[in-house]
Please model this.
Amino acid sequence: MMTADQIFRICNMLASLGWLMLIFFGGKRWASSIVAAVFLPLLFAVIYSTLLLTHWGGSNGNFNSLAGVATLFSNPWLLLAGWVHYLAFDLFVGSWEARDALAHRIPHLAVAPCLFLTFLFGPAGLLLYLLLRFALTAKQRRGFLAPLVFVLMVSAAAAFIPAWIAAGQNPRQILQ
Model:
């Protein structure tokens, strides 16, 4: 039987391969529509479901409070299930970003930083992509400069603040 650490490493390796495919080949439909959108998330869903079915009763935790969630995740198998949940959904969101960019004819080179940020910080990368999409589709409908300036300002904040926080630094101290 495999350990939780072994499954963790295998899932991380598979997710990393999926993200590399999205970042470098996300402009190709096969990468964004099959591998990253269906195959890997489906595999992670099977792993996640198996972990839940086999280990759910192994913790006294719950979802009623932060302390309850911490207790739930004190079980390494359930912590692994939570991590696989993140891997599946973040990769699914990244594949949607790549497909949506293709549909809106957004250059993949512009989307790649959004995908990288989604890989690292999930919702912050999605925010950056949605702002990029707004700016580039607004360009098609009306004036270009104002939305672009807005997106660049917000994108910079969305990209760097989570990185500073992850590095253990207070963004307010850096900006002073």
